[in-house]
Design a protein that fits this description.
By secondary structure, the protein is mostly helical. The chain is built from nine helices and two strands.
Length: 173
Amino acid sequence: MENKHFPTKEEAEALLAEAESCNPGPWGNHSRTAAHCAEAIAKRAGMDAERAYVLGLLHDIGRKFGKRHLGHVSDGYSYMMSLGYEDAAKICLTHSFNEKIIDKYVGRFDTTEEETQLIRTQLAAAELDDYDRLIQLCDAISGAEGVMDIIDRMTDVKNRYGAYDPEKWNKNL
């Protein structure tokens, strides 16, 4: 049965490969690690493993459009919505906000007023489900080289961006 809310595994892999050609970097392998983790956990948790894999693969797809921080959230959301993939768009939005609070974003706020408002509005309307939580977890344990200890991964992010909200840190744990 075809799902109109997220692409197939093969389509998602093609989207990621195309995105990497636009903006090469370790984020592609990080996304693959997150996808494999999400798939493995989903299988054991009785969730749709293909859906989990695809959502993990596409959570950072907004990086296709350049080296942006918060901007990758709005870019990914808008890109997936333009393709009709609402579930993938939601993950692009929610993966960075385990508490649904935009001010707790780890990284620079490099969005326009319109992009920031889009994130605020859509984040407020989003109801987090098990797939959102799963991708948040997998994002927090996935490095470009493979699966990482969650504390090591969050420390790496903190070192790269200068801070990590303690409440977000604790919620991840």
